[in-house]
Known about the structure:
Elements: H1 2-11, E1 25-30, H2 35-48, E2 53-60, H3 71-89, E3 92-98, H4 107-119, E4 124-127, H5 135-150, E5 168-172, E6 186-189, H6 194-201, H7 205-216, H8 226-237, H9 244-254, H10 256-260, E7 265-270, H11 279-285
Parallel strand pairs: 1-2, 1-4, 2-3, 4-5
Antiparallel strand pairs: 5-7, 6-7
Helix pairs in contact: 1-4, 2-6, 3-6, 4-5
Amino acid sequence: MKNLIMSVLLAFVPLLIFSQQGKINVIVFGAHPDDCDGKAGGTAIEFAKRGHNVLFVSITDGSAGHQEIGGAPLANIRKLEAQEAGKRFGIKYLVLDHPDGKLMPTLEIRDEIIRLIRQWNADIVIVHRPNDYHPDHRYTSTLVQDAAYMVIVPNIVPDTPPLKKNPVFLYMEDNFQKPQPFSPDIVIDITDSWDQKIYALAAHVSQMFEWLPWTSGTLDKVPAGEAERLEWLKKTRQPGELSKEKMASLVKWYGAERAKKVKFAEAFEICEYGRRPSEKQIRELFPMMIK
Length: 291
């Protein structure tokens, strides 16, 4: 029944825009509302401001991520926060109703993901890597990986037409080293989008200014005013110096002169389970790469 409802709801989304000539369709899956934002938010802005289509999907409802609120009240808060973040990013944001902290890689959810990828007519699919501290992150990655080939198989989820070609599947960056460290195959300059990314992240009030500071023991450091919070978030989210590996990737994709000017970037690793793009295809899929 839930899958039927999802199919009906998505049928009313204006899918015609996702097949416009020359438009790139990107779908990013995170385990929780705000997961996509931190690792792919700047890249989403770069796509959106060029007129391309981006959808963020939270697989769970986020109903466990708070020190004081939980269940349906928190899920409702986080859904509204995600919708506001989507407006600030200039993208669409969908929060599914699977319970936070209890995600399992079931066939039902895999089918749901296959439908979403097909209905979005995705060219690029982005997700967590499968080695991660949080079980919801790991299982979200597993679910999307398991959908990677199936999105082109007509007899799987036959109620939604299969894609004609397999998308490129990418992993978001993390710092986990085992079984292997993250590889920055594609690095996107988000310097011009940094302030907008921070503004969009700030829409997740329950996370950026309550839950995450509480878990790190810095809740008493969070300012009260909106402007002061934005500045605080900008400082606490500011990454360190770009690694040699990221700089090498930036030089490859943008050229040495442009790479030297990059202050902020987002990196992605190519998943072997989807389409294996050539360098030419990557440049076509990421039109912001201008040497």
